[in-house]
Amino acid sequence: KHTKIANLKKMAPPMEKKLVAAYGITWAEASKMLKDARQELGGRKASDDVVYEAAAQMAAEKMSQNQQQEQRNEMKQHQKRLSKAQRKENRGRYVTLKKTLVKYHDRHLEASEKELVLSGKLITSDLVKEINHDLKDDVTLLNGAKLDPFELQKDGRSYKARMNHNCHLYCEEEVLTCIFETMEDFGFNYRVHYDAEYSNHHIAAKKASYSKEVFVFSRPNPYAAGTAHC
C-alpha cells in the first residue's frame, strides 16, 4: 500500500507537486483542490495557470486554518499546564488550628486541659510569635487560668500551646477570638470548622476522654493584606 502511494506521488502532475511543495498539503489534497478549482472555473475551458491560482488560494486558506488550529491547540495546552501549576501553587495555602480537650476522671476528681496546635504550609515563626504576643497582651487570665505560649514541636512543622482547666472554663472564648483576629491581620480567612470527635481511654487508674475540633484558615493570595507582618 505504501509503495503504491509513493508511486502515485511520483506520477503526480506538475501542478500538484507545486501545491504540495508550496503549501505543505498532501498530494491527494492538492489533486482535489485543482479538480474543484477547474470545476468552479468552467471545466476544461479554464487555463492551467488560472486553475492553479484558484487552487493555490484554496491551499493558502487551508494552511492558514491549520496554523490557527495549531495555535489554538498550543494555547489550550499552555493554559492547561498553567492551570495545573496554579492549582499546585494554591493547594495547601492554609493553616489549621486543632483544639484537643482532655478530661480526666476518677472517683474524687474531674479535671481537664486543652491543647492548641497550629500547623499547615503557611505557618511561620513570625506568625506564631505575633499570636503569642497578642495572647499575652490581649487575654486576661482569671481565677488561676494558665496559658502556655505556642512552641515549636519536634516535627519542626507544628506549634503547640496548653491551657489548664481554669483557662478552659473562663478564658477559652477570649483565647480563640484573639487567635482568629491575629490570623485575620495576616491576611487569612476563616474557611471551615470540623466538629468535635470524641474518644475514651484509660490512663493508669484514671479515665480520660478526648474531643478534637479543627479550624481551617486559608490565604489564596500570597500578597493579601497583612503580609507586612511577615
Keywords:
230 residues, rod-shaped, 6-stranded antiparallel beta sheet, disordered C terminus, alpha+beta
What does this structure look like?
- By secondary structure, the chain is of the alpha+beta class.
- It is built from seven helices and six strands, in the order ααααββαββααββ.
- Strands 3-4-2-1-6-5 form a six-stranded antiparallel beta sheet.
- α3 crosses α4.
- It is rod-shaped.
- The two termini are 69 Å apart.
- The C terminus is likely disordered.
Helix content: 40-55%
The secondary-structure class comes to alpha+beta
Q: Please tell me the overall pLDDT.
A: 80
Q: Bin the strand percentage.
A: 15-25%
How many H/I helices? Answer: 7
Q: Which residues sit in consecutive blocks of at least 5 with pLDDT less than 50? A: 7-12, 222-230
> What is the tally of beta strands?
6
Order of helices and strands: HHHHEEHEEHHEE
N- and C-termini, Cα separation: 69 Å
Radius of gyration: 37 Å
Query: The biggest beta sheet, please?
Result: 6 strands, antiparallel
Query: What is the 3D form?
Result: rod-shaped
> Largest sheet, order of strands side by side?
3-4-2-1-6-5
In terms of topology, how is this protein built?
Blueprint: H1 2-11, H2 14-23, H3 27-40, H4 48-90, E1 94-105, E2 110-119, H5 125-138, E3 151-152, E4 159-163, H6 165-170, H7 172-185, E5 189-203, E6 206-218
Antiparallel strand pairs: 1-2, 1-6, 2-4, 3-4, 5-6
